[in-house]
């Protein structure tokens, strides 16, 4: 089966600019996750969708970050305006179900964002 | 709040030697624990789940609630095991990852 797709793979912007990332999950996966991975750290969950509804966005900096999954399939994550500390790899993942001890998340290749 | 600690950023062993990657967690309830692995130029992927009590690629991990640990072990390391390993704790909808350990298996 096709894996999780993300674009772009790399993005370089200047601080205060805006940027958007796109993710297409594995077909049939109801749950979609966005993670931020700063260099030297593990992935940090930003937001989780179940179909087109938000399940958890407690760690999303809502003053500058937004995400949507309007039709319950693909999703976009936006940063507006970007700060230097937003430089990271943004990972998208999907799973058939959300949570639970048998849950397996399938990850995309990530988007590496550099903010200058 | 729940937290995952991987005390070793780097771990290097020789081929055929035993390897143990340490993971400690802080959570007062019943934890759901996972090991994820990222090989060079590949995506992050699930290695094993504690609930399944499985051995994948020769790796096992035992949950020790008394020590709040979930260490990953393999009796004889192979060069192809070289990768970044992340321990993860799931509580409800929240998945917390450790900072990761980079394992290098030398020939």
Helical residues, percent of chain A: under 10%
The share of residues in extended strands of chain A comes to over 45%
Number of helices, counting only DSSP H or I runs of 4 residues or more of chain A: 0
What oligomeric arrangement do these chains adopt?
heterodimer
H/E topology pattern of chain A: EEEEEEEEEEE
Task: Write the H/E string of chain B, N to C.
Answer: EEEEEEEEEEE
Q: Low-confidence spans of chain B: pLDDT under 50, at least 5 residues?
A: none
**Roughly what is the average pLDDT of chain B, rounded to an integer?**
94
CA radius of gyration of chain A is 13 Å
Taken from the alpha-carbon principal axes, the silhouette of chain A is: globular
Radius of gyration of chain B: 13 Å
User: Hey, which two chains have the biggest interface?
Assistant: A-B, 28 and 23 residues
Counting H and I runs of at least 4 residues, what is the number of helices of chain B? 0
Helical fraction of chain B equals: under 10%
The structural class of chain A is mainly beta
Main β sheet profile of chain A: 7 strands, mixed
Low-confidence stretches of chain A: none
Question: How would you characterize this protein structure?
Answer:
The complex is a heterodimer of chains A (116) and B (107). With 116 residues, chain A is an all-beta fold. Helix content of chain A is 0%, strand content 47%. Chain A is globular and about 40 Å long. Chain B has 107 residues and is mostly beta strands. Chain B contains no helices and 11 strands. In chain B, the strands form 3 sheets. In chain B, strands 2, 5, 6, 9, 10 and 11 form a 6-stranded mixed β-sheet that branches. In chain B, strands 3-8-7 form a 3-stranded antiparallel β-sheet, with no helix packed on it. In chain B, strands 1-4 form a two-stranded antiparallel ribbon. In chain B, strand 7 (60-64) and strand 8 form a beta hairpin. Chain B is globular and about 40 Å long. The chains are: A mainly beta (116), B mainly beta (107). Chain A binds chain B through residues 3-4, 33, 40-45, 48, 55-56, 58, 91, 93, 98-110, and chain B through 4, 9, 32, 43-46, 49-52, 86, 88, 90, 92-100.
